[in-house]
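Write out the 3D structure for:
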Amino acid sequence: MLASKDGLSPHHPLPSSVPPRASRGLLIAVVAAFAVAALSDLFAVYTDVRLRAVVDGDVTATTASDLDAAYSLYERAGQVQLVTSLLCAALFITWFFQTRRRTELLAPNWFRKGPGWAIGAWFIPVANLWLPYRIAADMWNACALLPTCGMPAHCCRPRGNRTGCRCGR
């Protein structure tokens, strides 16, 4: 491979049988699921405020049927919230796994953990606060241009129009 003028070299070409990026349709589904989840959260807030108003008697002519209707709407909002949250989580984790698997094609030896960790990391208590971040950071770094000095990309930082390595090369 030829080195570029800025001291960075491109990655090896991908095999032609593998698509280079994640499914655009799945990404659109993830964004739509997040939007629906946000709308369901707003609906839940509305039903909570409505139920509170009925219980406190702020609504004129409050009857038992009004209370039952407000409570059933509140329960329905909770069910909608649960379904949209689970759908959102399933779609996002699927997208995250596929992106991790496809990113490995760019830099196969770059990752600290296997592709299955893109799914499993979300289900480990306490570790789910930082493991998904580490996996995402590995994906980001695998997509970055590689320095020609042979050192990992995190030791080289761009300086103006050239790249300077802290490794001394």
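Confidence is low (pLDDT under 50) at residues 158-164.
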